[in-house]
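Per reviewer request, we include the raw input and output of the structure prediction for the construct analysed in the revised manuscript.
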Amino acid sequence: VAEGEPSEGREPFELPRFWDALGQTFQVTSQEATKLSLAFSRPPLPSAENCRKLSEDVQNAILAVATVYYWLPKGQGTTLRKRVRDATTEVVEGMIQLTDTILNAPVESLSQEQLISTGGVWEACEQVSNLPRGEYNQAAVVSALAACLGVVKDAVEEMEHALVEGQDPYGDIMEDEELGFRGNRDTYWSEADRQLLSSCMGLMKASKACLKKVLAAVKAHGKADSPEHIAQLDDLADIANEISPSVDELALSMYPPVNPLAVRLNAAKLASVLKKVLEIVKTSHVCPPSEEGWVQFLTGAVDHNMNKVKDFTQGQL
């Protein structure tokens, strides 16, 4: 499941039928986990015949889950397929862990570990209800973009909070009663640092605005009615996934002591990712004329802030 690639089936693919079947197989797997756990919750042990029956039922449930996952063709979109694959893998791994726990636990009583493992399978099986079921790949891409936006929002807020004038960025994590007042200037930002970092904040805010606008455009105009449209949505999700780690890398390099060249390098990486996102949006079906204005504006904002970062760090080269 983790490494295999579903093949394009010969029969016409029906998404509603797929979701029904996936939901049913996850439900059956949850029930089999409960039966298995109860059978080994207290003495006496099940008979050899009952053990064989339990084993077969668990194996059949897991094989059914994997089989239904393999129904989902690549043509339905890689973003959707990744979400379903992750959910399926979680169920399989949960059942493996439960089985291992039962094999290694004493039979005298139901162990805490066994309870946790059983709950883990239930939780993994319930994830099927959270999978994006809108128009094929479009809902999965919306979900992926929303997750990226949430992470970037948090990073922007954290850095804004740290940059409050006069605030010690390490105040909450480097208190030391024995050392008392810290006189090390490496833990503070100079005025020159703050000028450089204001442009970096501009890039981080542009990242948040970019994801927000792309998310809205995909919701409003995203379609999964042709292989080309599905591929365009997947491209957007793939490149948008690079924004969050790039924002994190830039944010980490902004903490004192500031190395201006490291900041410039990470700012350039983020600017490059944002320009790629905007370029992909511009050439995709989610960007009718009504969306072109913000694409152009954000492209200009990225260039403006990156040029300011270059100006502030030019003397360091």
